[in-house]
Design brief:
Blueprint: H1 22-32, H2 41-49, E1 58-62, H3 68-75, E2 81-86, H4 89-101, E3 108-112, E4 125-131, H5 141-150, E5 151-164, H6 171-177, H7 189-199, E6 202-208, H8 210-225, H9 229-236, H10 238-257, E7 260-268
Parallel strand pairs: 1-2, 1-4, 2-3, 4-5
Antiparallel strand pairs: 5-7, 6-7
Bound molecules: S-adenosylmethionine.
C-alpha cells in the first residue's frame, strides 16, 4: 500500500498493470530496503513466522511484488522453494532479475496471475505467505478460500497487512485512505482473523504491530526529510521528494492516532 503517484499517467489503482512504476519501486526500496515494497524487512518477517519452521517447505507468496521477502524466506528461513504470484508484471520482471542476481533461480519462481482463482491444484503448498497485499482486495474471502484450497493439510498461513482501528476514520485517515480516487479496503485485525477462520484455518493468532509502526513511521519521516531528502530530490525531483516527505508525515500521524495498524495473523490448515 503506497499512495504516491510518481508519474502523470492516470493512477487507476493496484489492478492497473503500471501502478508500480519503476520510480515508485525505487522510491520504496530506498526507504524500506532492497526488494521490499512494504516496511519491516527481515525483522518483521522473523516476527511473522515466530517459532514456526519452514525449512525445506514450498511456500506460496500471494502478492509477492519484487520478491525481496521471498529471497529472505529462502536465505534466512530455509524455505525449500517459494512461488511468488502477483498481478503486476513490471514488479515480477524486477523479481525475476533479482532471483538471477542472487542465484536463487532454483529456489524462487514468479507467476503472473489475474484476480480470481489461483492457477494451482488443490494442496500444492506447504505454507502460504502474504505481506501487505490483501489490503488491495475489495473481496478478501474468495482469496482466503483459494489460499486454503491450495494449502496442504497442516500448512501454515502467515499474513501481514495494513489494518484499521475499530474507531471511525479521523479526517486525516479518510483523506489518506481515499487519496487519488481509490479507497483502500482496510479491515480490522480482528475481522481478518475471523475471515481466515471462516475460510477453514485454525489455531489463529494475531499480533497488532501499531506500537512498532509508530516508531518506524516516525523514524521514516525523519529520514525522508533529513538524510534521504537530497537523494530523493536528485532521483525524483523536488516536488516528488516533498510529496514523499508529506506522505511519511501523515503516515506517522495516522500511526500515532492508532488508525493505521499493521498487523500479523497466523493460522494453520487442519
Ligand atoms: C504493497 S505491495 C507488497 C509486495 C510484497 N509483498 C512486499 O511486501 O514487498 C502489494 C502487492 O500486491 C499485489 N496484488 C494486488 N492485488 C493482487 C491480486 N489480486 N493478486 C495478486 N497480487 C496482487 C500488487 O501488485 C503488489 O505487488
Amino acid at each position: 500500500m503506497e499512495h504516491e503517484t510518481l508519474d502523470t499517467s492516470p493512477a487507476t489503482g493496484p489492478e492497473h498493470a503500471l501502478y508500480y512504476t519503476d520510480d515508485l519501486i525505487e522510491n520504496l526500496q530506498l526507504r524500506w530496503g532492497e526488494g521490499l515494497l512494504s516496511p519491516g524487512g527481515a525483522e518483521e518477517l522473523r516476527r511473522m513466522l515466530g517459532k514456526a519452521e519452514i525449512d525445506g517447505l514450498h511456500v506460496l507468496d500471494f502478492g509477492c511484488g519484487i520478491g525481496g521477502y521471498d529471497a529472505l524466506l529462502v536465505e534466512n528461513h530455509g524455505a525449500g522453494h517459494v512461488t511468488g504470484v502477483d498481478i503486476d508484471e513490471a514488479s515480477l520482471a524486477v523479481a525475476d532479475r533479482m532471483r538471477r542476481q542472487r542465484r536463487l533461480q532454483d529456489r524462487l519462481d514468479f507467476v503472473h496471475v489475474s484476480p480470481g482463482p489461483l492457477p494451482f491444484q488443490d494442496r500444492t503448498f506447504d505454507t502460504v505467505f502474504t505481506k501487505d497485499s490483501i489490503v488491495d482486495l475489495p473481496e478478501k474471502a474468495p482469496v482466503f478460500d483459494e489460499m486454503f484450497r491450495v494449502a496442504r493439510p497442516g500448512a501454515w498461513i502467515f499474513l501481514s497487512d495494513w489494518f484499521r482501528s475499530e474507531a471511525p476514520f479521523t479526517e486525516e485517515m479518510r483523506a489518506w485512505a481515499t487519496e487519488g480516487g481509490e479507497t483502500y479496503e482496510m479491515d480490522t485485525l480482528k475481522s481478518a482473523a475471523a475471515a481466515l477462520s471462516a475460510a477453514g484455518f485454525t489455531q489463529i493468532e494475531t499480533d497488532d504491530r501499531n506500537g512498532w509502526f509508530r516508531d518506524f513511521a516516525r523514524d521514516e519521516y525523519q529520514r525522508l526529510k533529513g538524510p534521504l531528502f537530497d537523494t530523493y530530490v536528485a532521483r525524483f525531483g523536488r516536488s516528488q521528494a516533498e510529496t514523499s516527505v508529506e506522505n511519511a508525515r501523515i503516515r506517522a500521524l495516522l500511526a500515532d492516532q492508532g488508525q493505521l495498524r499493521p498487523g500479523h495473523v497466523r493460522g494453520r490448515k487442519p
